[in-house]
Amino acid sequence: MSEESEPAGDLPEYAERVLEVAELIPPGRVMTYGDVAEWLEEGGPRQVGRVMSLYGGAVPWWRVVRADGALLPGHELGALGHYREEGTPLREASRAAEGHVPRLDMKRARWDGRTRTEAHN
DNA sequence: AGCGTGACGAGTA
DNA sequence: ATACTCGCCACGC
Q1: Angstrom distance, A10 CA to C3 C1'
Q2: Which nucleotide is closest to the Cα of A42 by its C1'?
């Protein structure tokens, strides 16, 4: 009573917004944590990351990635499976090191939110 | 109230 | 390209 608390079963408004953006990202494309934060004009990359860590399971979490294109620690193979399935531009190691998980090709995979779905080839 | 931590990002060495 | 530092901001102890 004296203080406000989050109603169980519902998410904080900020979290809801973040998840909403995550769902907007078209398949084969990704957005960085920083981009999402900027797009929301609120919070920062770390806040977005926190939301994803807590509630990301309800949305295509693999489309929200780090700016350097590294896959999520602990979910690399899971994310990689989705990327291959969606045709997300990956930057496979030219060094052909086995066991080395490829990183995302941010240059091509990064989505600016222009609903552009156009060809990048 | 202070301190450490984290699904971050950019800059520097 | 990798490693490290600093800035950022919310949360937990």
Answers
A1: 41
A2: C9
